[in-house]
Fold this protein.
Amino acid sequence: MKLLHKTNKFYGVAALLVFLMGGIIFYFALKFFVNNDIVEKLYEEKQIIEKQIASLDSIPQLVIISGDIVKITKVAPEIFTSNVITKDTIQIDEEEAGEKVPSRLIAFYAQSKFNTYQITITKSLVESDDLIEVIAIALAALIVSFFIALYFVNRTISKFIWTSFYESLDKIKQFDVTHAKQLNILPSDINEFNELNKSVTLMTDKIQTDYKNLKEFTENASHEIQTPLAIIKTKLELLIQSESLNEEQMVMIQSVYDATNRLSKLNRSLILLSKIENNQFGQKEKINFSEAVKKHIVNFTELIEAKKLTLNTSIKNNIIVNINSSLADVLITNLITNAIKHNNREGEINIELTDQHFKISNTGFPLKNNPIELFNRFKKDKSSGDSLGLGLSIVKKIVETMDYEVSYSFQNNRHIVELVFQNETNNTNQQT
Amino acid sequence: MKILVIEDEKALSDSIIEYLKQEGYLCESAFDFNSAYNKVGEYDYDCILVDITLPGGNGLDIIKKIKKRRSSAGIIVISAKNSLDDTLLGLELGADDYISKPFYLSELNARIKSLLRRKNFEGEKEVILNEITLIPDMQMISVNNQQLDLTKKEFDLLMYFITNKNRVLTKDAIAEHLWGDNIDNADSFDFIYTHIKNLRKKLIEKGSKDYIKTVYGMGYKFSLE
């Protein structure tokens, strides 16, 4: 749920509660005050009538109070009390076809020198009820428009306020530890965001430094390993020239030699990977990928034949690809050797190059591991014996420098590695 | 043939020199920049192996110095850091070839021989070994004056054997020589076996002696003894 929706929800619920409570309180308060007012008016009228009766000693004929019904009846003086009764009643309005009208009445006794009267004044409540109704409706309308306004204002404000946050978020999303580019977040005028930006920047700077140190360490280690490896290798090579070695010694030397070679290949691959990552390869150039692929296929013909593999090729001429030529060699060699290595005996290899893609597929057994991991370093299928597990991660790194995509799939008992060229138009333009 | 080995790792330098001496070369060594710089300034060599990273200076400056003297020496860069930039720069400055550490001595030997053959274009176009005659530039071979058809890989293989005759060549060294150092493929050993079998058969058919011997576990040897 978006933050805006969440806050709006809380605001909405809170406002609804407040308005509901407020509305109820307001309604009763209003009613109370209006009632009071009516009672006060009734008392005022009572005073006027009492005065009249006291001074004139007659039933005041002229007591006309708008809308009110005044009943005065002469009673025996003994019943006189000073008690006053006020209560709500229903009046039947004969003029309006017997409609029931909610009313309030006041009943009291008034005395002159000679007579005692019982007086009731009835006041219709219709008008005041109408008033309350109108006020309530107006209030409800106000609340609804307040809600709508609140929603839009909130949306506008949050859009405005969160802009810098989203900008930062975008930058963080684009942050790539393998690039030296620093996370450059613009300062915001909101303190909380600035705090956040500061912490994130600090953190990414630290990650970058750590990554750089680690990378440098790996590189240095790889480079430093080269010389001792070279010494071991050459000494072993000299040692095996010796005529005096017996078979047992030869076998032992062979194991050392194999292990050294493995180590040296591993080291070489790691250096290659870090060089690709560091963009230490020279300029990219437009190379004729079709010719390069054909050249490498020829180089591996004997390997393919020896394993009794059937090779099917469909290579469109003059496909131009923008890539460093040494990397192109590594890329194509890795893909072809993979297809040979992970193949069945008497299997098949299909190599297809078009404007859109470069696809190598080969027969083989399905992978036991997760295919996605294939492109990770040292991830190799359990069945693939003594391979280093670096071939495809090198392929992936190279493809990344070209801004193309590489994917693996397994269909119809075939391993398919596909390299998709995105800028097809670029390729076709280059063709002559 | 005089070769100068400029390499600061003494153990490595010793190995190189030992291997090359057995090939009949006169070898000298230089372990740091200054002695190397002086040596290339004073003496003439047929081939100079230069390590780029040296104590006291950069191997590239030594290449510049050699070129300034208009020396005809062949130059092979030994790139310690597998650094392509340095290697390319070395080639631009006039080095003839490069080899990256760790390398096979047999491969280094093949590079030196090939370089010397290219440098001395007078005469030595052919490589003759008893009844076998090879013309590397034309990929031609004859045995007892009969032309022999070999595939490119078979030719390269034979050439590699003859260059390193009487040496044990390991399967790894042969694989790397034939298919380059990008190959990470144990399968290639099977092909080497197949290739060698075919090559032997073709040579023997034309009346050549069976020179190629299997060295148990390790590899093969082109043996004249």
Residues 339 and 362 of chain A are 6 Å apart (CA to CA). The longest strand of chain A covers residues 99-111. Chain A touches chain B through 52 residues (CB under 8 Å).
